[in-house]
Design brief:
This protein has about 375 residues and is α/β, with parallel strands linked by helices. It is built from 14 helices and 12 strands. Helices cover about 40% and strands about 20% of the residues. The strands form 2 sheets. A 7-stranded mixed β-sheet has the order 1-3-2-4-11-5-12, with helices on both faces. It has a 5-stranded mixed β-sheet with strand order 8-7-9-6-10, sandwiched between helices. Helix 6 links the parallel strand 7 and strand 8.
Length: about 375
């Protein structure tokens, strides 16, 4: 069972995930699917074929910060790059901890996921079960407040109720760390700010009804709160990071799968990089494909005004932005999420396969 390590009492990850699954009906839905899209044009076709039949089970979330897998499925890029001997099965998840549990159980081999669940999973497995192999999305997380909340400066958050998507998730850690930096604390740490882990769909509804004062959430939920609940952006998390870059989503692989099938991982990364480049060259078309994917999985597409605004708040990249992950890990440890001993993340990255692909494509390597 996957649970965050902690110093102070918190609800179990299992109960948090159960609540999250029940509440997130708009964007976050779980399903199983196999890629059956026609091959995309533009593959080099020079890679040596995979010698024997392999199944690659890939996870992702149906939201705008997981653009690459949705676009690659829609365009057939995975099918093209993986080749005839690799069967791709995709699985979508409602939350990071659920994806990590599936990875630990051997139910998936790789997944797109946020940084903090990956950190916690790495620590929980004593550094054995997963590796980060590429970045996917930077930015796209904001602190938004109710329009009539009266919040205009950090000190105004005292005695307010602020939502985060899930206890211990990336935005939850970011909010609690930001509060401490600004002389405030959440109630669990002796302060007077009530941080309430709340499914994103519920946060939107509760802010609309005046029952929450704000939320630190990823896109498209920040934009939805602004446009649908008359909210206001108080802080774009980009403003807290050098050059505005911080990891929101990256790609992780089960260590055993990577050791047994390095050729498949290399092909997966080639598809990932080529899709990243295509998205940045065709943002409007890519945004449309992501919205179609969201509709297919969750049953409802996003209005054009919302997905367009949300899309502008994020950057699609294959760079894992490793420095920001280490800062997030430091914040999570300081808050008590990662146990009594500061974790050693020296081996959490395995970027040689990505850099080999980048070299093949005449692109600059990324740094660990």
């Amino acid at each position: 069972m996957f649970r965050p390590l902690r110093r102070w009492p918190i609800p179990s990850i299992t109960s948090v995930v159960a609540t999250f699954v029940a509440a997130s009906a708009v964007l976050l839905a779980a399903c199983d699917d196999r890629e059956a899209a026609p091959p995309a044009a533009g593959s080099s076709g020079t890679a040596t074929p995979v010698a024997k039949s392999v199944t690659l089970r890939l996870g992702y979330f149906p939201n705008v910060t997981h653009a690459q897998p949705q676009v690659a499925v829609a365009r057939g890029t995975f099918a093209e790059e993986l080749g005839a001997n690799v069967r791709l099965e995709t699985k979508t998840f409602n939350a990071g901890p659920a994806a990590i549990e599936a990875l630990f159980a051997g139910a998936i081999d790789a997944t797109y996921i946020g940084p903090n669940p990956a950190i916690t999973g790495y620590v929980q497995s004593q550094g054995k079960d997963l590796r980060i192999v590429a970045g996917a999305t930077s930015a796209g997380a904001l602190l938004v407040v109710r329009g009539d909340s009266g919040i205009t400066k950090p000190s105004d958050f005292a005695n307010k109720k602020i939502a985060t998507p899930q206890l211990g998730n990336t935005q939850d850690v970011a909010l609690r760390a930001w509060l401490q930096k600004n002389g405030l604390k959440d109630k669990e740490h002796g302060g007077n700010v009530q941080v309430i882990p709340t499914a994103n769909a519920d946060a939107l509804s509760l802010i609309s009804r005046g029952q929450l004062d704000g939320a630190w959430v990823p896109e498209p939920w920040a934009t939805r709160i602004v446009q649908e609940a008359k909210g206001r952006v108080f802080l774009d998390e980009c403003d807290l990071w050098p050059n505005g870059d911080f990891v929101t989503t990256h790609l992780i692989v089960r260590t055993k799968f990577m050791e047994e099938h390095p050729d498949v991982v290399a092909r997966l990364l080639r598809a990932h990089v080529k899709t990243t480049l295509w998205i940045n060259d065709h943002p409007d078309e890519a945004r449309g494909l992501v919205n179609e994917s969201i509709k297919k999985i969750s049953g409802a597409a996003l209005p054009d005004a919302i997905i367009s605004a949300a899309w502008r708040n994020q950057k699609i990249t294959y760079d894992p932005i490793a420095s920001s992950l280490r800062k997030s890990a430091d914040d999570a440890f300081a808050l008590g999420y990662l146990g009594e001993k500061k974790p050693d993340l020296a081996n959490i990255y395995a970027l040689d396969p990505l850099n080999n692909v980048l070299k093949e494509l005449n692109l600059k390597p990324v740094q660990q």
